[in-house]
Design goal:
The chain has 306 residues and is an alpha+beta fold. The chain has eleven helices and twelve strands. The chain folds into three domains: 81 residues, Rossmann fold; 138 residues, 2-Layer Sandwich (D-amino Acid Aminotransferase, Chain A, domain 1); 65 residues, Dna Ligase, domain 1 (2-Layer Sandwich).
């Protein structure tokens, strides 16, 4: 019987470099636990390579486009290979910031005021911002990117115009939302249960790409998040609800802003990072779940028809 685990890493998104870091860490963990492991970068004719390998399980260590938007999941479903993390529809909905927010709002999960915009359509955006009662500072970002790629905080109309013109060159759809100042709280969910919340205090303007992945950014991690017992339980329950209403499986991480005693859900991530600086392993470790054991759990949790 083939007990091979194939770890998919790299891919075609802007998060390719981070995906390799996640993938290599997972490969090391599985080898430590005695698993037979192969690395595979899903580009070109990778489907044929995957078929030849005939893995027992695929550990999806991809981030961003094609890795967490339902694309790779649909291929694995078609090949009937069990895989980790969320399935086709939940991955697609969660990756799309507009679709996921519609689900959040429908289920009474508080999100910042926002609207989506097609950059190919000429529209008076300042009028729409005013009509939606969104006030500066305003956040603009792509609808379907991860790792805070392309996220801008605009303090005034001049900054908005400049950053919008930058995004317009690369993206068809963007999200325009009210900036919520507050505290940055992130919650890990494993299976259907939340395992803990961490608070981040970035030295940078916000928890952006550099703050996530560079030691030099010196982001402070407070574990567990410094909340009252009641509020700590509340944010865990909110993350659990987000995970479940989106139909997620395996591991997720939900990102919140805590402002004026309320939690605003910014997004849920179906493929959270598994690097040395990543939050889910840090939260899990604090609660007694070692990194290698967390990766093994992900592999054992893998299935088809997710």
């Amino acid at each position: 019987m083939n007990n091979l685990v194939v770890v998919l890493m790299g891919g075609l998104s802007g998060e390719r470099e981070i995906s390799f870091l996640t993938g290599k860490a997972c490969v090391k963990a599985l080898k430590n636990k005695g698993y037979k492991v192969k690395e595979l970068d899903p580009k070109g004719e990778f489907v044929n390579k995957l078929k030849k390998l005939k893995p027992k399980v695929v550990l999806n260590a991809l981030h961003g486009k094609y890795g967490e938007d339902g694309y790779i999941q649909s291929i694995l479903e078609h090949l009937k290979i069990p895989y980790t993390h969320s399935g086709v529809s939940s991955s697609r909905i969660t990756m799309d910031k507009e679709l996921s927010r519609l689900v959040f709002k429908k289920n009474n999960l508080k999100v910042p005021k926002y609207f989506s915009h097609n950059t190919n359509i000429k529209k008076n955006l300042q009028k729409k911002i005013k009509d939606k009662n969104i006030k500066y500072p305003i956040v603009i970002k792509p609808i379907n990117e991860g790792s805070s790629l392309g996220v801008y905080i605009c303090k005034n109309k001049i900054q908005f115009k400049k950053n919008y013109n930058t995004l317009k060159k690369k993206y068809d759809r963007i999200l325009v939302e009210q900036y919520i100042p507050g505290r940055e709280i992130q919650v890990a969910v494993k299976g259907k249960m939340p395992i803990g919340a961490i608070e981040l205090i970035p030295k940078r303007e916000f928890y952006d790409y550099a703050a996530k992945y560079s030691n030099r950014a010196k982001t402070r991690h407070i574990m567990p998040a410094a909340l009252t017992t009641k509020k700590y339980k509340e944010v865990l329950d909110l993350a659990k609800k987000a995970h479940n209403v989106l139909g997620c499986k395996g591991i997720t991480r939900s990102d919140f802003r805590f402002f004026k005693n309320k939690f605003y859900l910014l997004e849920t991530n179906t493929q959270p990072g598994m690097t040395k600086l990543s939050l889910v392993p840090e939260i899990a470790n604090y609660h007694g779940i070692k990194f290698d054991d967390l990766v093994v759990w992900m592999v054992k949790d893998a299935s088809n028809n997710r």
